[in-house]
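Extended Data, panel c. Modelled sequence:
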Amino acid sequence: MRDLPPRLDFERTVAGQRLVLPRRRLGKTIAALLFTTLFGGFFAGMPLFAFVLPAIEELRGDADAISKGFSVFGLLFCVPFLVIGSGVALVPWLALLARTTIYLEHDEIRVFCGVGPIGFSRRRTTRGLAGFEVEVGTSRTNDGPTKPMKNFATLIAKYDDNTKPLHIAVGRPRDFLHRLAESLRETLQPHGWTSSEPTLTITESLSGQSEARDKSVSPPAEETIPDQPAFSKITVEDSGQRTIYDVPPRGLIRGSHGLWFFALFWNAITWFFVWAAFIGDVEWEGGEAPPWYFIGPFLSVFVIVGLIVAYLAARMGTRRARFEIDRATDPPTLRLTDRHWLGHTVIDLHPGDLTAVRVAFSGMESNDRPVQHLKLHVTPRVAENLPKRFRKKREIGLFVERKEPELQWLAARLRKDLKVPAAPYG
């Protein structure tokens, strides 16, 4: 881009050095910003006019204590929606107007992003810094190929001891971030560098390529099978010709990664307001009940979300699976039975249908940690007959609810029994 400076120079300060990045230009993002503003305003405005303002009026009036208690409860319920809606409407504009300043001082790198003195900062030590990664954003239209977005990328500082990476600059052009990484390397290389490598590396990746974080690699000719974890409840029946793995459910609490508690909370609050609207306790500022064509669609959105979350949590917590391996053929055949509280799926894989078994990133994160699951890669012919959720990626993903050591053990056993590799990219 022509508006980018050809070189980035650090200013020397009393404590160290400082670099102030230029603000982002509005350009073609105006349409997206207007959309997020309208969407966030609608998301916050609906509960504001439907619940918050009438509740405030009731609290100011002479209503009885029970009615005021319900009003307070309604106000507390609406607070998250007001905060989220306001954030969706305002945060993109703040990100556009904010300045990013990078400070290098006392073996520490600190990044401040804000408007004037108001903002937030992130800091990490420069000790153990392994290099920088430019993660280029991607876009996709109607399940088409993934396309890189050269004007939307993120610069990330990587560490060699699995320390959480530091996001230095977000939403910047790719070429700009490469120059920024070069400037940081030239400045940091003589200071605080303790790694055995002589040079800070600069790499590039595409966002959404979660497979790069997969931990499984192609196994050697004789793969070492890890021991079954002590906490694992998976049972193995081996009769020589047949091997059966029974995977019991983990339960609603442990198996849903906290999703079950969220579902209970969400549905309790939602159905309270449905009940309040049904008995006519929800009113406009003038004392009249909202029309059905307003309150009905508004509450139905939250009811549908609550039911979907409860369904997913129950499915994760009640999943019971069985792997039946038959060695009558070479390589063996596999029958996979996946059961949960609403039904079951049976998948038969014949010799040559299965191409790889591995533990890989599922696309979910829990407490900022990637959630792993078991992946069974199949041929395109087999994928056409799989359930829809497995068809597009030509892989069967299972057991996001189970712990990684247990998954690694199960994947290694299945690879040995089925005589398939753990190819990183299927």
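Residues 210-220 have pLDDT under 50 and may be disordered. This feature is highlighted in the accompanying rendering.
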